[in-house]
Design goal:
Blueprint: H1 8-14, E1 26-28, E2 37-41, E3 44-53, H2 60-74, E4 78-88, H3 94-110, E5 114-122, E6 130-140, E7 155-159, H4 164-173, H5 184-191, H6 200-209, E8 213-216, H7 221-233, E9 236-240, H8 248-257, E10 270-274, H9 276-288, E11 293-300, E12 305-309, E13 316-320
Parallel strand pairs: 4-5, 9-12
Antiparallel strand pairs: 1-2, 2-3, 3-6, 4-6, 7-10, 7-11, 8-10, 9-11, 12-13
Length: 334
């Protein structure tokens, strides 16, 4: 099998098909594209998500926190606590473990979240440290948002720019290789993009203005996230490729490594689906919060997911958005 998370078809066949529904208090169950699960407790929902950090060798404590908080935010919930599991290779120094936990705890606390437990182990089963995080959030059931909630006619928005997380990881882990591609200022700018990977603010805004669906763009990039949201919702879409923002430095890095920035891991970008009547309220709220955004397309009843070139009067199909393959990052970080 290929490196990276399972393809959607394999995930359905090997994992989701083996999970059976036996309880009536489960609000969100595993399915393609859903960022979280949720369990009812009276009028409140406990929202949960879990993710490992496997594609980066640096800042893994920070990444582990943000990736999980982003998933919780996409459900419209607030994260309260995190559980961290560290699997460290033989020979790991105590200072390395301390640095990872310090970074993770500092990041979590800045976001108003506590680390409430976990597990740390030295094992010959890994050749570098793996951090896996589980986040626990809460929201009222009536405010719970699903990835599968997009409706035909909704506008689709992307916040910030495509490939942000991937750009930061590559610029940090491959800095010496990029010395002839980027100048010192560009390299530093790319590395500092790691500070822009949170979408917690977008999640709060989306919940407040009444979005129908949100999805954090992680592995598979912005196109993978759009595909998964539409697939989960049983809908299609028309996406104007020229409306998707890509930072010039990301374009340089992707051109050098011959990878597609729209399929590069993109934590920091939230995909948001909202009806036309409330779209202006979403735009105003994002502007007030100083969050860049672009309206990139529309949700359709037709199940095909099309990339479009040209304006609304002269549209031309550029390509169809396919089920995401292994993330472009794995072509660079091996």
């Amino acid at each position: 099998m290929e490196v990276g998370k399972l393809k959607n078809e394999a995930l359905n066949d090997l994992v989701i098909s083996e999970i059976h529904m036996i309880r009536d208090d489960i609000l969100i169950r595993p399915s393609i594209g859903e960022d979280c699960s949720a369990i009812s407790f009276g009028d409140m929902a406990c929202v949960l998500t879990t993710d490992p950090i496997t594609g980066s060798g640096s800042q893994i404590g920070r990444l582990a926190v943000h990736v999980c908080l982003n998933d919780i935010a996409s459900s419209g919930a607030e994260t309260a606590g995190l559980l961290l599991t560290l699997l460290c290779p033989v020979g790991t120094e105590e200072s390395e473990i301390k640095d990872i936990l310090h970074e993770a705890n500092e990041t979590a606390n800045l976001m108003g979240v506590e680390i409430v437990g976990g597990h740390t182990e030295i094992t010959a089963a890994v050749n570098r440290t793996i951090v896996s995080a589980t986040a626990i959030g809460k929201t009222s059931i009536q405010n719970l948002i699903k990835t599968s909630g997009a409706k035909a006619g909704d506008y689709l928005y992307l916040t910030k720019q495509a490939g942000t997380e991937g750009t930061a990881i590559i610029a940090t882990d491959k800095a010496s290789e990029l010395a002839d591609v980027l100048n010192k200022h560009e390299l530093l700018t790319a590395q500092e993009m790691i500070s822009k990977i949170s979408v917690v603010a977008e999640g709060r805004i989306g919940s407040r203005v009444g979005v129908h669906a949100m999805h954090d763009a992680t592995e598979g990039g912005v196109l993978g996230a759009i595909y998964e949201m539409c697939e989960a919702s049983g809908k299609g879409c028309k996406i104007h490729i020229d409306k998707i923002e890509v930072h010039p430095i990301t374009e340089k890095i992707c051109e050098y490594y011959h990878i597609n920035p729209l399929k590069l891991i993109s934590s920091g970008t939230m995909v948001m689906s909202i009806d036309k009547e409330n779209a202006s309220a979403l735009e105003r709220a994002l502007l007030d919060a100083d969050i860049d955004y672009s309206r990139v397309g529309v949700v359709t009843d037709e199940m095909t997911k099309k990339l479009i070139m040209g304006d609304s009067s002269v549209e031309e199909i550029f390509d169809e958005i396919e089920s995401p393959e292994a993330d472009e990052l794995y072509k660079v970080i091996k």
